[in-house]
Amino acid sequence: MKTFRAYRTEEINGEFVNSIKNIDKSTLESDEVIIKVAYSGINYKDYLSSIGNKGITRNYPHTPGVDVSGCVVSDKTNTFNVGDEVVVMGNDLGMNHDGGFAEYISVPSAWVLAKVGRFTLQETMQIGTSGFTAALGIKKMLQSGLKPSDGAIVVSGATGGVGVWGVQMLSKLGFEVWAMTGKAEAATMLEALGAKRVLGRDEVLAPLEKPLLRPKWAGALDTVGGVTLASLLKQTSKSGSVATCGNVGGMDLPITVLPFILNGINLLGINAADTPMEIRKEVWALLGEIAEPSKVAGFCNEISLEQVDDALSQMGKSGHIGRFTIKVE
Ligand SMILES: NC(=O)c1ccc[n+]([C@@H]2O[C@H](COP(=O)([O-])OP(=O)(O)OC[C@H]3O[C@@H](n4cnc5c(N)ncnc54)[C@H](OP(=O)(O)O)[C@@H]3O)[C@@H](O)[C@H]2O)c1
Fold it and tell me: pTM of whole model > 0.85?
């Protein structure tokens, strides 16, 4: 076969149109490592890329998909052997480099990481950028000195891709996890994942005019940003740590300096895509210890390339629960 299938976003007369196309395999030759994609995962960035967000993807036509697990077909650098099971996530994959919503990708060798042996290719994508981001946040929280005896940890956007992994892994480490969600109907699932309490969004939000409030938790893994992040910081106990990765609830941070200069709160920024390879390996080692795909499986929806349109649309409305993985092969 001279072509392979890919979910492409095209810019046609100013509109962004998505469809499955046949792409010439010769286009794969331009890069170092060719990988047969087994699974990809859908992240919020992919939704943005698919609707033409130029902050994510400058040029179209383009194949979204920031996450891939699969097998090496060829490697010009001889770093990997044919058939090696590998993972590629972040860097520029799916942003300004054709991504994983396709049967094949070709990428620089420096982006490719051997898969952690304990996980299958499917589980690796159930984790994907979501689990990786949660683990990177947890790693930073642990490095800041946070420990289970300090108190509860809030995970916001708890039914989202990052959130479900945050709840599972923090619980595994012995933290008392409070899951904040806008979906009350998901409470039982979140408790089964390890959450000790499920909080409605209103239970976390603090009045804008109050610079500080009574401390309620020792830290947070925040995926929402905006007033949610500000509220979490204002109610974190002295020397606590809040890791922040997302902005689904807003880009602004309406807050004073008081939580930082009076309570010594650590605000830990997370950028998964640009994580250096050395740290990537450490984060995957941590995932190897604490990620439990069997527990999170109920939050993972496996779909085909044909179902990507519907999944992206659900993600755009935040109507989904957990993570979408695409079985490509
Ligand atoms: N910095 C990084 O390296 C990095 C890496 C991965 C993801 N991210 C970002 O992290 C965020 C979460 O990613 P994800 O993959 O978990 O996304 P997701 O699957 O879409 O989950 C986001 C969750 O946030 C909650 N939410 C949505 N809109 C909200 C609002 N207006 N106010 C409060 N909560 C809201 C919802 O959960 P509930 O219904 O349970 O509240 C939703 O399921 C995104 O902004 C994403 O771009 C950043």
Answer: yes
